[in-house]
Write a structure and sequence with these properties.
Layout: H1 8-35, E1 40-55, E2 61-75, H2 86-91, H3 103-131, E3 134-136, E4 141-144, H4 149-153, E5 160-164, E6 167-168, H5 172-179, E7 186-193, E8 196-203, E9 205-206, E10 213-214, E11 217-219, E12 223-225, H6 229-255, H7 267-278, H8 282-301, H9 308-321, H10 327-355, H11 358-366
Antiparallel strand pairs: 1-2, 3-12, 4-11, 5-6, 5-7, 7-8, 9-10
Helix pairs in contact: 1-3, 1-7, 1-8, 3-6, 3-8, 3-9, 6-8
């Protein structure tokens, strides 16, 4: 899509990325519902009025709506009141209502959405590894920042770091993981320079917020290695796991105050990044989509009412108690979840606008 001019590239790439992720997520719910014998009343991509819709032979209405910021699957008999009127009860299809199913079946249907996102990430990563190849990073230093801990310690461009404090280093991320937890700490770095091995003793720097150690080096180039289908799928699964672990680590560090929340973005940031990544080629866009798919799966598993993870918590409580929470209790939790999600959406949108310099621009106009 690099041939498209802006802003058309950004808009189109954003619609493709979000559309695919939402479709696969809801398809997971849909297929699991079909498997567990639940009738699906509607499958919608987007919200609002339908731009196109049709009904299949099973009675499911498929819709493409004009607000492309999500989607949903409407399950027959989901969330119905405990006090059904005779008319409502008569409208239920025997054996096809979601709330009539055992708690295990309901949990499968709900969990299938995030699981589908993880499966999609594995498939996308595997596709990139089979076609463009898998990036094989090294621990070679590509750049040394002026007046950094690395420069003061004698590190040079082209050095290959082999160990830090005796712990072997294979890829550049090993360096980051070894340095970040140790701000302003003495370390011994073993390097290979022009075929000769030597050890440098230096003191790490500190990030501006004081929470992380810095070395002041950038990664060197990477090589690309194409993989066979079996190896690509295995590597895709491993990479999906790594992305999920790194995402959860970032979230935990943000919760505990080890990281700031300024990098947390929403739909506007995703749209901006989609356009930039699309300009780098299809492989970059597919990889970006895979990373977002992992994030979407994880977010939906967070134990927040309204999200899939919140419903799974309700089902776990039901399994332990032998009966579900009352409708009133669930409504209270769901409303709290809506407030939390709305607050989070406002916050990430504020971050997005701030990163674009919108507030500085407005203040300059006012001033």
């Amino acid at each position: 899509m690099e041939f498209l001019p802006e802003p058309f590239r950004t808009i189109l790439s954003f619609l493709i990325v979000l559309g695919v992720l939402v479709f696969i997520h809801e398809l997971g719910h849909y297929l699991a519902a079909r498997w567990r014998g639940v009738h699906v009343e509607a499958f919608s991509i987007g919200f609002g009025n339908a731009l196109a819709k049709w009904t299949d032979r099973l009675g499911t209405e498929w819709k493409i709506c004009w607000i492309p910021l999500g989607g949903y699957v409407k399950l027959h008999g989901q969330g119905v009141s405990e006090d059904l009127t005779p008319g409502d009860a008569a409208a239920l299809i025997p054996g096809k209502a979601f709330d009539e199913k055992p708690v295990g079946s309901r949990a499968i249907v709900v969990a299938a959405g995030p699981i589908a996102n993880f499966v999609l990430a594995v498939v996308l990563f595997a596709a990139v590894f089979m076609t463009a190849g898998r990036p094989v990073p090294s621990s070679v230093i590509g750049q040394v920042a002026p007046n950094s801990a690395a420069e003061r310690g004698g590190l040079m461009q082209g050095d290959r770091i082999t160990a830090i404090d005796g712990k072997p280093v294979v890829v550049f991320t090993d360096i980051v993981q070894a340095i970040e937890p140790r701000p302003e700490a003495p370390i011994a770095i073993e390097i290979e320079r022009e075929g000769q091995r030597q050890t440098l003793n230096l003191t790490t720097g500190r990030s501006p917020d004081g929470s992380r150690g810095l070395l002041g080096v950038g990664a060197g180039g990477v090589s690309w290695e194409r993989m066979n289908p079996i190896s690509a799928v295995a590597a895709g699964a491993s990479h999906t796991w790594d992305v999920a672990a790194q995402t959860l680590t970032y979230v935990w560090q943000m919760i505990t105050g080890q990281r700031g929340s300024e990098d947390l973005g929403g739909p506007l940031r995703i749209a901006q990044l989609s356009g930039k990544v699309a300009g780098q080629g299809m492989a970059a866009l597919v990889s970006f989509m895979a990373v977002l798919s992992v994030s979407l799966g994880l977010i939906n598993l967070f134990p927040i009412p309204v999200l899939d993870g919140g419903h799974l918590v309700f089902y776990a409580i039901e399994a332990v108690r032998g009966r579900p929470l009352s409708v009133k209790a669930q409504e209270i939790f769901l409303r709290a979840g809506l407030v939390l999600l709305a607050s989070l959406f406002i916050f990430v949108t504020w971050n997005d606008l701030a990163s674009w310099g919108v507030f500085q621009w407005v203040s300059r106009i006012i001033g």
